[in-house]
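Database export, one record per block. Field names are fixed; values are copied verbatim from the stored entry.
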Amino acid sequence: MAAQTATTLAPAGESLVRLLGEARAAIITDLREHGERSVTQLAELLGISDVATRRHLSVLQDEGFVVARTVKQARGRPAARYELTDEAHRLFPHRYDQLATEMMDFLAEHHGRDGLRTFLKWRLERETADLREAITAEDLHDRLEQLASRLSDAGFAASIEPIDGGFKLVQNNCAIADVAKEHPEVCAYEAAAFSKVLGRDVTLSRRDTLATGAGACVCTVAEVPSSKAGRGDASDDASGTKAP
């Protein structure tokens, strides 16, 4: 049975699922394939007792990867059936970056650079509107912390570092790295969105990006002198960052 489990796990070996351990990874992989399973079915898969299987399921439930629902049976007591949560499905590899890159390639090829810029400007406005709901603080440091928190929730591993005259907004991961490598203008539009939501009382510049081989995406942010400042949308000139 152990050899069969190892074979079952092979496709998951390239994903975060393997970090759960062999038995729990086997459960996750099997539920992904079959939708839902009973304790007995999963115990047969693993070659262990129902009691031991329930222990693994309990851990997976506590981690938010598995949920149970009660199903009435023709005979006997209702039985529990287990299925994956949305969080568990995110453990498996996706090809969203490839699809996004192909879409942008299509726009550039069939609608020219102007068509691609039109799309990026449309995305800029959507991203700005979304971020503006989260960026509400008056103090610049607090605004940056709000922005970093929102970015981290989206998979960008963002943090704030104080520097002379301002701050650095550091993104140690890029959730759209493959897209940005093919279309680096995405990075400029992203920085322009940051500038807009942070307001006219700041300047923002970005020179280092993961897409160009740097160790992180870094934006330098500083306050504008009070005589020129104003908490509204930053224009391209006032922000120090201009979308292509």
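Remark 1: Residues 96-132 form the longest helix (37 residues).
Remark 2: Residues 1-15, 234-240 have pLDDT under 50 and may be disordered.
End of record.
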